[in-house]
Amino acid sequence: MRQDWEPEDLIEVWTLLEDDMKRVRNKSGATRIGFALLLKFFEVEARFPESAKEVPAAAVDYAAQQVKVPAEAWANYDWQSKAIQRHRGEIRAAYGFRANTEEDQDRLAGWLATELCPVELSRDRLKAAVVARCRNDHIEPPAPGQVRRLVGKAVKDFEKRFCRSTMDRLSHTTRSRLEDLAAGDGTDEGADKDGSAAGVGGRTSPS
């Protein structure tokens, strides 16, 4: 989320509309401004912020004016409480999203490995593709750290499949030679060096 917002953009994106105000009406204090900011953040990013610092200060001030709660109350919003869990569930429902599951993450990793990794090398673009796919499917994307691990797993799975398919296309003779090279310990080369060294060391002076 970008941190610098022009006044016009701030008003366009962070204004609480009538339905938004209905949702914050039964909340007060820190939970009121907290819910409002999570609601608008999710509308923009299709995910929740990882911490309070990710929400632009200008958005905090603007939301505080709208919900008539001091901006300082945002610092008191409890990120580990049951209230924020309820807020997230309510916000997902408002936008027709659901939380992601382990099955979703497995499907995303398989999709990346099969469809995107063969044509895309950039891990940043692969991560962006995961977030876009989740948004399109109305699934809250995994946290950024989870997305990184998911992409890493997909890349490894693709590389393993690619190596297997490449080996399968090689002749038996070629595979055997490659396996011998991979298993080699440099014995022949060492023997040559040892033999050469022995010849020099064992040379006798002419009589």
Plain-language structure description:
The chain is built from ten helices and no strands. Helix 3 packs across helix 4, helix 6 crosses helix 8 and helix 7 (123-136) packs across helix 8 (144-169). The protein has 207 residues and is mainly α. The radius of gyration is 30 Å and the shape is elongated. The protein has helices at 7-14, 18-24, 29-45, 57-67, 82-95, 102-116, 123-136, 144-169, 172-183, 187-201.
Provide a quick synopsis of the model.
This protein is mainly α and 207 residues long. It contains ten helices and no strands. Helix 3 (29-45) runs parallel beside helix 5 (82-95).
What are the SSEs and their pairings?
Blueprint: H1 7-14, H2 18-24, H3 29-45, H4 57-67, H5 82-95, H6 102-116, H7 123-136, H8 144-169, H9 172-183, H10 187-201
Helix pairs in contact: 2-3, 3-4, 3-5, 6-8, 7-8
What structural keywords apply?
207 residues, mainly alpha, 0% strand
What's the overall geometry?
elongated
Oligomer state equals single chain
Helical element count? 10
Stretches where pLDDT is under 50 for at least 5 consecutive residues are 193-207
The total strand number stands at: 0
Largest sheet: none
